Amino acid sequence: MPEKQNRPDEPTYLVTTYRNGQFTTEHLTRTEVLALDHSDVDFHLDDVFGHIRIRTEDGDTIGYQVEIPGVGKTTRELLLVLMGRPGELLSPLKLARLTGNTWFKTKNNVSGRLVKLRAAFRDNAQAPWFFITRRVPYSIAWSAGRSFRHIEHIVLPTDEEAKGEQ
Predict the structure, then answer these.
(1) What CATH number is attached to the domain comprising 25?
(2) Residue 149 backbone class (left: φ over 0; alpha: ψ -120 to 50; beta: rest)
(3) 12 — pLDDT class (breaks 50, 70, 90)
(4) Which of 15, 73, 93, 161 is the most buried (most CB within 10 A)?
(5) Residues 38-65: what's their mean pLDDT?
(6) Are strands 139-142 and 51-55 parallel, antiparallel or unpaired?
């Protein structure tokens, strides 16, 4: 099936931003995405162009390209679920249900992935900035006080697919 070629002025990127307790989503063009200021959020995750920026509690910026070192597929899946529910403490069982990944069912598996995220974000379990935990019952959350932006590519339907939907 041929993929439709997007014109430069067409919105082809989905940008989700969380700031001050509110989610916003926008469809932006390539030019608009490239013009975004990475420093206006605590965490900037660009899955299209590979820009990853983390602003630490002390104001330092950590920059990565394409992937966060030490954060594999499962850990990234955990990160995205936490980002989708800021401030909501999620138990291992709830994480497993949300992701469909039974690997998350145990505290040790989740805790091990959280250690990797904390290392990459320079977060601290004693004074958490990005990731909040509760010991009993064990649960974790993305801090509702931390802002983020996530950029994803939108695949537009071909002309034939668009006609079929009418």
Answers:
(1) 1.10.10.10
(2) beta
(3) confident
(4) 15
(5) 94
(6) unpaired
Q: The domain containing residue 38 runs over which residues?
A: 13-153
Number of domains in the chain: 1
Distance CA(78)–CA(145), nearest Å, equals 18
Cβ atoms of 108 and 158 within 8 Å: the answer is: no
CA distance linking residue 159 with residue 4, whole number of Å: 7
Q: Pick from 141, 150, 87: which is nearest to 110 by CA?
A: 141
Residues sharing a CB contact under 8 Å with residue 112, sequence separation 6 or more, in sequence order? none
Structural domain contains residue 161: no
Q: What is the pLDDT of residues 60-81, one digit of tens each?
A: 999 999 889 889 899 999 999 9
| β-bridge pairing 22-28 and 13-19 | antiparallel
Q: What is the pLDDT of residues 76-133, one digit of tens each?
A: 999 999 999 999 999 999 999 998 888 888 999 999 999 999 999 999 999 999 999 9
